[in-house]
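Lecture notes, unit on binding sites. The following record was shown on slide 14. It pairs a sequence with zinc ion.
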Amino acid sequence: MKVDRFSTGRVRAKRASHGVRRYLPGGWSDETLPVNVFLVHHPVGLCLFDTGQTAGAADPGYHQRWHPYLRLARFELRPEDEIGAQLTRAGVDPAGVRWVVLSHLHTDHVGGVGAFTGAEVIVSRAEWERAQGLAGRLRGYVPQHWPLGEPHRVDGSYDLVGDGSLVVVPAPGHTPGHVALVVRDGEGGWLLGGDAAHTPAELPKDLAELCEREGLTPLLAHDDDV
Ligand SMILES: [Zn+2]
């Protein structure tokens, strides 16, 4: 099996990661991080893990002006950096993607989902419910921008193919409904971890142990070392 990495532009965060100072204007970090999306070439079909950011997120009115999320991260991408456009350039028809698994529903993970209207979109039920309505918007979710219809909502773990080779597993922390995707290939494989951690060294203990036990390489959303 093969896993491709794409980054949908870059994200720049505030230099201070905690405290009220990060809400003040200025103070942007000199460094930027990737916004990674992973394409798994599974024998049964293509599986995309997360869909990255949309260039539309920079449009006035995409986020509510008052939301503090706007003041914490600055996304740098052009329409050609969206995942649908990148796959097309790489010779992969977005319409041929069979599954889209969303680690969680923050905009830099669900933003590009509109290019995959033919796919089965899989999200945890807890995450889906947390993103809805006014409470969801107060948490920074923007469900009004998702052309998702009714995605496949799963509880706990979920085996996509039925043979253990592609398994959605709960990975709560960053959000309560956050999930990871285990990709097993022969003796090893990968753990697509989303925002479960920024670097493999920071993985929660249960996920780190899973990787150790099964020989899985963790691949994370905002890690350049992938
Ligand atoms: Zn997130």
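Take-home: The longest helix spans residues 205-214.
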